[in-house]
Amino acid sequence: MLKKFMVKIESGKVKCKMPGCGKSYSTLGTHIIRSHNLSTAEYLRRFPGAKLSSDEFRKKVSDSAKNLFLKDPTMRNKVASRTFDFVKNKKLASLLQRDYKSAKVCLKNSLWKPSTILYGSIIEAILIEKHPESKDFYDAIEIAYRNKEILEKEYHRISLIRDLRNFVHLHKELSEAEGEINEHSARTFYNICDSIIRRFKK
Asked: Please, which residues have CB within 8 angstroms of residue 95's CB and are 6 or more apart in sequence?
């Protein structure tokens, strides 16, 4: 019975392929960056076909977004009217509003790549604007996490954004992408983006 239980737990995780590691997580992004000082793109180049997150994790994230709309029929209208009045730079706030609306249209029409890139760009802009002392996006993420402005699960998931944003360049995607931009990535970044906006508006 215990053996079956352990097998079930491991089935919801992916094992790190770095030599001498072998640790398992539901998503490997943060582990790869922190423990091995590698970007997820570099990891995928070393281990073609490797997974960065388990199928169970992907399904859970996708289902969580769908459940939000099922539980609250007014959610779509609320989300569509998100404002960025907490951003002091009004020109930036206007651009954020524009891109947020575009990202929603892309998500609704299953355009996973532009949706993923837009939500990632919005998260980056919000965190860097919130922490102008940060050196770059990754530094802004670290500061926001230390200040408890983003949740731990969001912190782990955001670590993937840095690489996916670069796939706006097709040659970059051609050389590095391993099926990473999909419904899972789009809905993951939508959830994080919406959560950060609601939290910062308080």
From this structure: 125
Instruction: Estimate to the nearest angstrom the gap between the alpha carbon of 9 and the chain centroid.
Output: 23
123 - beta bridge partners?
Answer: none
Strands 24-25 and 14-15: antiparallel
User: Which candidate, 14, 53, 13, 23, places its Cα nearest to that of 159?
Assistant: 53
Q: In Å, what is the CA distance from 92 to each residue of 88, 89, 96, 98, 132?
A: 8, 5, 6, 10, 14
Residue 107 lies in a domain: yes
Residue 188: count other Cβ atoms within 10 Å of its Cβ: 28
The string of pLDDT tens digits covering residues 18-62 is: 999 989 888 887 788 888 888 777 788 888 888 888 888 777 766
Q: Which of 103, 104, 95, 102 is nearest to 76 (CA)?
A: 104
| Tens-place pLDDT, residues 150-176 | 888 888 777 766 667 666 656 556 666
pTM of the shown model = 0.60
What domain range is 87 assigned to?
57-200
Is residue 155 situated within a structural domain? yes
Asked if residue 122 is part of any domain, the answer here is: yes
